[in-house]
Design a protein that fits this description.
The chain is mainly alpha-helical. The protein has a single domain, classed as MFS general substrate transporter like domains (Growth Hormone, Chain: A, Up-down Bundle). The protein has helices at 13-46, 51-78, 81-101, 105-133, 139-164, 170-186, 207-210, 212-238, 243-270, 273-290, 298-326, 329-360, 365-381, and strands at 2-3, 191-192. Strands 1-2 form a two-stranded parallel sheet. Helix 9 runs antiparallel to helix 10 and helix 9 crosses helix 11. The model is unreliable at 392-396 (pLDDT under 50).
């Protein structure tokens, strides 16, 4: 039986089990992502690669997410959701084997691009499915919990890396084991197809004309998160931190993202979500300004990273809540695919600009870039007309 979407304020056993399975799958996948992003960056740094090359390798996965996201809504109109997820898990395992089997940087670029294609399927299908089976009155808390577990998974990857180290095959074997575990919960999920299979009234690209601030939120959060995940360890090494301390910055920041998303979701359920989004944007700007000045003061650094990363990640949580309120069925799937595209663009551009800025002003170009991006987003978030515009029909 297909898992049905609903706006009823009730839970069923099937819905709850499916929700747990979906969150479990994507959270374990998140650990894998956050393990390999800094792992490959540190391996290249040990080979004396430039910051631009390191950023470009992180960027190419985002190119895969962008391209893959255009196809996912069509897949979801014709293929069942659980099959798509299991196929994505299988291909990710194959790609990790391929990464482990070669030291060719060219091959790594190809593999990371294919990994982005897989990621677009896993994220778009899972997030659309979660939103559709969640009663609307609980959207904020459920999406907050989802992003809490996902952010916690992003915190665990760097922590695992600090134990395994970057050398040898151990971190790759750990990644393979994690993806095997990620596939197991999906076997207990219900079957899924979007509530409506009608052609959506907007396309992945034209989503920016329907909900401009949501598209920009995805871009900016990805820009900030992927740039910091890829380059903060390198920044830490260049300002004199040990490798373990530089990696630990990722864990502390991502832990903030994990622990603060549920309260942010609760706030969005009880207050105007748009005001919550503005507050998170302001926190993102303040944290971007503050953290570089606290590198030599560990307690202040950990506290700043925890709050900055966690509150700014709330921008994405609130954006998902607003999308769940405004769209359903294939339009929701298209909106989630658009989230993937604009996330991918931000993740594509961020490491490249961050790495180039570090090459131009070593290493302080990185925090300067983050401040500029966070500041521009905060200003735009204050303009109400950017939240949602009249819908454009049948534009791809």
């Amino acid at each position: 039986m297909l898992t049905q979407s609903t706006s009823e304020p009730v839970w069923t056993r099937e819905r709850a089990l499916t929700l747990a399975a979906l969150i479990g799958c994507l959270s374990i996948y998140g650990i894998t992502i956050s393990l390999f992003t800094p792992l490959l960056s540190l391996i290249l740094e040990a080979r004396n690669a430039s910051s631009t090359l390191i950023g470009a390798l992180a960027m190419v996965a985002s190119a895969g997410i962008i391209i893959g996201s255009f196809a996912v809504p069509r897949f979801m109109r014709h293929l069942e959701g659980r099959s798509l997820l299991l196929g994505g898990v299988f291909f990710e395992i194959v790609l990790i084997f391929a990464l482990m089997s070669t030291q060719s940087i060219v091959a790594w670029f190809v593999i990371r691009f294919l990994g982005g294609l897989v990621g677009s399927v896993l994220f778009v299908v899972t997030e659309t499915w979660i939103i559709e089976i969640t009663p609307r009155v609980h959207h904020g808390r459920v999406m907050g919990f989802y992003n809490t577990t996902l952010a916690l998974s992003f915190a665990l990857g760097p922590l695992i890396l600090s134990v395994t180290g970057r050398q040898g095959t151990l971190p790759f074997l750990v990644g393979i084991g994690l993806m095997v575990l990620a596939g197991l919960p999906v076997l207990w999920a219900g079957r899924y197809a979007p509530a409506s299979s009608d052609k959506p009234g907007f396309g992945v690209v034209s989503f920016v004309f329907v909900a401009p601030l949501l598209a920009l939120a995805c871009f900016v959060v990805a820009f900030m998160e992927i740039t910091t995940t890829s380059l903060i360890p390198v920044y830490g090494l260049r300002v004199g931190m040990t490798e373990s301390s530089a990696t630990l910055m990722l864990f502390v920041g991502a832990a903030g993202g994990a622990l603060l998303q549920f309260p942010i979701g609760w706030a969005a359920d009880h207050f105007d979500p748009r005001k919550v989004l503005v507050a998170c944007a302001l926190a993102g700007l303040a944290g971007a300004v503050a953290w570089p000045f606290s590198v030599d003061m560990p307690f202040l650094l950990w506290t700043t990273l925890f709050l900055w990363w966690g509150l700014f990640a709330g921008v994405y949580t609130v954006a998902m809540i607003l999308a769940g309120k405004w769209f359903k069925g294939v339009e929701l799937a298209t909106a989630m695919a658009a989230f993937g595209v604009f996330w991918g663009v931000g993740a594509f551009v961020g490491p490249l600009l961050g790495g180039a800025s570090m090459d131009l002003w070593n290493p302080y170009g990185l925090p300067l870039t983050l401040v500029i991006v966070a500041g521009l987003f905060f200003v735009i978030s204050l303009i109400p007309r950017f939240y949602r515009l009249p819908q454009i029909k049948n534009v791809s």
